[in-house]
Amino acid sequence: MSPTMVAIRAGITRAGIELRQSFTNATDLVNLLFFPILILIALYFMRDGSFHQTGLKLGALALPGVLGSMIVFNGLYGIANYLVLDREDGTLLRAKATPNGMVAFFIGKIGVSAGLVLVQVALLLSVGAVIVGGLSLGSTGHWLTLVWVVALGLLAVLPLGAVLGAILEGPRATFFLTMPLMGLTAISGIYYPITALPGWLQGLAQVFPMYWVGLGMRSALLPADTVAIELDQSWRHLETAAVLGGWALVGLLLAPSVLRRMARHESGSKVASRREKALQSAY
């Protein structure tokens, strides 16, 4: 077996171990389920509301947007946070010292981040669909759309999150990442029709993955006539696949080189220095 295949297998094994640890650790489980449970409670209180005079249920309209924002936000932020923390505690340095260790490390972090997001999506979708009703998942076409949108959405954001995690310095910088992400959420029309925004904001939102993930999720989960509230009154599947695929390609090309560059600059003295600073700030 080639060294690359060994590294890939090691990465997959690493992802499985970390996922198992997350599902058996009380703190990790609380962090994993807290936000989905809050959303489900909100959906319950929205279940009887309707959108203007369309008759469309507010809960049914909101659920695809929540799922889309969760894929982008948690996928991007989650892996960036993992990389920052692993750099702080020396895990990355140990991976660097192993033959093809960075390949296994990267695959493992991609796998565990994707797995945790998928668990949240599955929980929200299965329970949320029962709460709100009005979703259209009865046909094979809708399920296939759901699968490829989720897969492409994760591929578009996880490598970018790895790039950000390699660039950001410390947990505090990762925290400030949430601000631009929230701003992007606000202009992406993921919780309301983007047609309500000025034209220049509509164009800006369509540059980034979040709008397209939200659009794809709505096309998979909502009735066909809901397309009337979208731009051009079309689900634009080809454009969705092209934009998300483009971001995925850019991320997958950038991430390995950025991670290698980050690893080259890691050393035992840097890890020790960061630990000393952390101890000093604790007092």
Q: What's the pLDDT, averaged over the residues?
A: 84
Domain tally: 1
Identify the overall geometry: elongated
How many alpha or pi helices? 11
| Percentage of residues in strands | under 5%
Q: Please state the CA-atom Rg, rounded to the nearest Å.
A: 20 Å
Poorly predicted segments: none
Major sheet characteristics: none
Written as H for each helix and E for each strand, in order along the chain, the element string is HHHHHHHHHHH
Please report the distance between the alpha carbons of the first and last residues.
50 Å
Estimated structural class = mainly alpha
Helix content bin: over 70%
Number of strands: 0
Please describe what this structure looks like.
This protein has helices at residues 3-24, 26-46, 58-89, 91-96, 101-132, 140-167, 170-187, 199-205, 209-221, 237-264, 268-282. With 283 residues, it is an all-alpha fold. It has one domain (3-268).
Write the layout of secondary structure elements.
Blueprint: H1 3-24, H2 26-46, H3 58-89, H4 91-96, H5 101-132, H6 140-167, H7 170-187, H8 199-205, H9 209-221, H10 237-264, H11 268-282
Helix pairs in contact: 1-2, 1-5, 2-3, 2-5, 3-5, 3-6, 3-7, 3-9, 5-6, 6-9, 6-10, 9-10
Short description:
The chain is mainly alpha-helical. The protein has one domain (3-268). It has eleven helices and no strands.
Spell out the key features of this protein.
single chain; about 280 residues; mainly alpha; 11 helices; about 80% helix; elongated
